[in-house]
Amino acid sequence: MSGRNRRRRLEASAGPPSPTTAPHQRRGIVVTLIVFGALLAFLATFAIWANRQLLENDTWTDTSTKLLEDPEIRSQVASTMVDTLYANVDVQAELQQALPPRLQPLAGPASAGLRELTLRLANQALERPRVQQLWEDANRQAHQTLIDVVEHGGDQDVNLDIGTLVTQLGQQAGVDVAGKVPPGVANIEILPNDKLSSAQTAIKLLRSLAIVLLVLALGFFALAIYLAGNWRREALRDVGFTFIVVGALVLVVRSLAGDAVVNSLASTEAIKPAVTNTWSIGTSLLAAQGGGLIFYGLFIVIGAWLSGPAGIARSARRGITPILERRVIAYSALGLLLILLFIWSPTPGFQRVPTALLLIALTIVGLEFLRHKAIADFPNETWETGTQRWSTAVRSRFGGDG
């Protein structure tokens, strides 16, 4: 008891925290919140990308179409089609039956030559809209099977069926393939049976993480700005820089991970370009999200700078105060800016309704903050004084030139 009493007397004698200590403590809390928010935002970016890439049928199908449009990948798909055709159809025997007896010994060399021709035909066929539509339909069906297995259970393999494409290829090459390509043989394996359980767990977890991590990250940033008190502008600026850093890290990790994936999957140098392009196209959405974070960060930093107390920022804020002073004009300008941004669509967020609504709400909050700050700093700057000053500046400028 004596030790506890002594500690209490020491705490009482020390008194409350000094005015200089309390702000430092709060600043430390704010910095900690921003750091945790950055970590969660980093993880949320990958979770959202995986969630969209794996679980959205339209995104999956669109990516598959872009993959087929790539020459290196298309060449590998064509090679797979030709290998499947020759593995299931005795092309040499087909040629022997078609040739006169004296020419039948030429069936072997002709079969080899026909293989090269068939490979060229496959590449040309995969460039045609009708064949690309068949590829798109096959990918859409494969992805729907994946989602059905994950959501409702099952134990079948998830495969991309290119049997129809192989059959059409054989017909173009003049080879009778009717009934000779067994069902399931012309498949590209997407997810084997023994990986289904792990995939089901991972995908279900992704669905939750994508939302939870994003909400927590934004919550940490908002709480940090709220607790910053008198230096909220600096906290907002730091959040903007955090967005930029996280976006840059996402791009760096994507690049490093791409090198590792390509080196592990490319068994030969011949297929390395196709694997590299597959990674690049398959993670293009992740790259867009990283770029989006950088864009949002720059937007936040510029907004924080524009509300600064001195220097060029103060002059710039004074210059736009007449516009901000009238709410109708201010919101008209904001509306025009948003229309241009949505037409430009610099980030994936502008293409999705929930994110777009959030961006609109945040820009409105930012506009109101900037309006109140500008009007409080320059109460005499009105639309009338502004138009008069702008008119004088224009007359002086063009009058001097004249």
Structural description of this entry:
- With 402 residues, the chain is mainly alpha-helical.
- Helix content is 79%, strand content 2%.
- It has a two-stranded antiparallel sheet with strand order 1-2.
- Helix 2 runs antiparallel to helix 9 and helix 10 runs antiparallel to helix 12.
- The radius of gyration is 32 Å and the shape is elongated.
- About 2% of the residues have low confidence.
From the structure above, extract its key features.
16 helices, mainly alpha
Radius of gyration: 32 Å
Structural class: mainly alpha
Tell me the quaternary state. single chain
The geometry reads as elongated
Poorly predicted runs of 5 or more residues? 14-20
Sheet-strand content, in percent, reads: under 5%
Mean pLDDT: 81
Termini separation: 91 Å
Helix content: over 70%
Write the layout of secondary structure elements.
Elements: H1 2-14, H2 21-55, H3 57-69, H4 71-88, H5 91-98, H6 107-125, H7 129-152, E1 158-161, H8 163-172, E2 187-191, H9 196-227, H10 232-265, H11 272-282, H12 284-306, H13 311-325, H14 327-344, H15 353-377, H16 383-401
Antiparallel strand pairs: 1-2
Helix pairs in contact: 2-3, 2-9, 2-10, 2-12, 3-7, 3-11, 4-6, 4-8, 4-11, 5-6, 9-10, 10-11, 10-12, 13-15, 13-16, 14-15
